Amino acid sequence: MNEKISRVSSLADASRRTALKAGLAAGLVSGFPALARAQDNTIRIGYWPIAAGIPLYAGVNHDVFKQAGLQVEAVKFASAQQVVEAMIAGRIHGSANGTASAALGLGDIAEPGLCKIIAANPSNAKLVLDEVLVAEKSDYKTIASLKGKRIGCGPGIQNVTLAKIIFEKNGYPEVKPIEMPVGQHVAALAAGQVDAVYTLEPTGTVGRLKGLTKILETGVISKYVLGNPMAPWYGGSASLTAAFLKAQPELAKRYITAYLSAIDLVLKEPAKVRPDLVGYTAIDAKLAEAVPLPGFTTYSQFTPSDIGYFQKFFDVFTERKIFTRKVDVASMLYRA
């Protein structure tokens, strides 16, 4: 088991040439009770504390799961990679929306058939999530004008890889993105530590409300990685482990139905669920009212075109030798 966890870390670390120790994942999740020993039917879902995980937050806070007769526990992790490591270790049953899809892809390489995706977050020029920001007082007008400048991005192989592609496509092939927590992006720009950042919402909204940053361009992954500004970029996904689906199929089906009901609640009553961002994320009450909420595509809503763009996204990681083999998106989608 620990060998599989280490493979997720080593696959990502080899690409970004960092030195995460092999035993880290086991230590990170050791505080969680092993599911194999659990005597209850609690469903533990890992999440990265960002806005995209709102179906899980709303589902817990508004008793969507409880009304379905389910006991669901939201388990917080510092990164998407840690969520996947916990899934491999058997400490959690799945991931909430917002968990980096590429991290799930790495998990599938470490343990083939690790999980099934039940919903994903599409973003593009209209559904705003990904963006390039600069300081409010800067004179930069285009991404191309940032050639040779200091570029920041969020932590993890998905963020670094995508930042590289964005700036390579804008005439800056030698870019070396500086990894930093997303929560530090606005401060880093304001302090002049970096000249621009590739980041995710709510960073742009935070910077705008504080008068410290401005958006240079949104929907950058769809435009520069997928080649179409309106193409859906499925950067984050909710999933369940194959082990859970096999061991408790009826319970898993009830959870999926309830989770999709939570997505429906988010889409139909956004004002009602916005306060749920407070507590689960670093977003405060004022920001919760302004931050763009994510879009959702459930497993049954994926079209061939959607799957094609999702696959194109994964293929980027294969082409860049981050994935050691091709990861087939279609086979990772849940089928009722």
The H-and-E topology, N to C, reads as: HHEHHEHEHEEEHEHEHEHEHHHHHEHH
- Strand residues, percent: 15-25%
Summarize the amount of helix as a percent range. 40-55%
Question: Structural class, from helix and strand content?
Answer: alpha/beta
What is the top-level CATH class of the largest domain? Answer: Alpha Beta
Mean pLDDT: 90
Number of helices, where a helix is a run of at least 4 consecutive DSSP H or I residues: 17
Ranges where pLDDT stays below 50 over 5 or more residues in a row are 14-39
Q: Outline, from the CA principal axes?
A: globular
Organism: Thiomonas arsenitoxydans (strain DSM 22701 / CIP 110005 / 3As)
Family: Belongs to the bacterial solute-binding protein SsuA/TauA family.
GO cellular component, one term: periplasmic space
Pfam families: NMT1_2 (PF13379)
Topology summary:
Elements: H1 2-16, H2 24-29, E1 43-47, H3 54-61, H4 64-67, E2 72-76, H5 80-89, E3 94-100, H6 101-110, E4 115-123, E5 130-135, E6 151-153, H7 157-168, E7 178-179, H8 185-190, E8 196-200, H9 203-210, E9 213-218, H10 220-224, E10 233-241, H11 242-247, H12 249-268, H13 270-273, H14 277-280, H15 285-288, E11 297-298, H16 304-319, H17 329-332
Parallel strand pairs: 1-2, 1-3, 6-7, 6-8
Antiparallel strand pairs: 3-10, 4-10, 4-11, 5-8, 5-9
GO cellular component, one term: periplasmic space
Family: Belongs to the bacterial solute-binding protein SsuA/TauA family.
Keywords: Signal
